[in-house]
Amino acid sequence: MSGFHDVQPDPSAIGRLLKPAFAILPDPPRLFALRAERFGVLAEDSELSPYLRFLAGLTAAQADLAAMLPPATPIPPEQVARARENCMPPLDRAAMAASPSLRHLVTGFLNAVAPLAKPAPAAEGLERLRHAAPEELDEMLGNVMTNSFPVEALPQHLFLSAVAQVHAARLAATLDAARLVPLETGLCPVCGGPPVSSLVVGRQGAEGARYAACAFCGTHWNEVRVKCLACGSTKGVGYKEAEGEGEAATVKAETCDSCRSWIKILYQNKNPSLEAVADDVASLGLDLLMQDTEYRRAGFDPFLIGY
Ligand SMILES: [Zn+2]
Ligand SMILES: [Zn+2]
Description:
Largest sheet: 8 strands, mixed
Helix content: 40-55%
Shape: globular
Bound molecules: zinc ion
């Protein structure tokens, strides 16, 4: 008698012990199709219905574009290795702004979204964009890459951001997720952008893990919970939800007393249909509530600028 019991491993316990994957790269057609579907569902019962319906159409056009194109030319391995050595993102946004293949996508995408029902400012913005001189287009694409959307031309930048998202997600999809390394706190390990929101996931093997989501390239990356995604502080992190929702809230504001910023956290483990970008736009009520506090929004959503 050895005194040891023959214990069979419990597969579900092993699943929980596995470290969640650091990065999840996008599958572009699926990413945009799921987002379009979610925008459509959210539009059914919202004060923002017309805008959400427009975004459902816009993201469906992104999905169509992504599905129609052959796989993207991978980011050169030398560039990926160099970025890794220098703690830089492998996707070079500045180079992307000048890319002829992005220019090519812009023309096709603007034609595709022309028939969509859209708010008047978006319709006007699209017309201006379709007649923009090449140098104007260059400047606007440069703005999209640096997340600086000028107030006087928001709709134009929204359309260009949508095209850039497709291009960026296609490039991100060519990478090897296992080769990605964390950059600074709260920065996308693929494109260096800030997160739009973060999600507490419910999928098997990663239950309860938190992933930050990039609205630019569609990558999700693991971040520990109860940590500010703007400054990295783990102290003075709090949670606020829209009035009357209490513990049942599936979207909350994660606030940080160190840098006075906040970012949305979506509890996908409570509602698997939550989507990083669509549910960020649809929960605008929480933004309005947070505007009356001392915290400033740190999440970047190209579809929420101007609100
Ligand atoms: Zn990114
Ligand atoms: Zn902070």
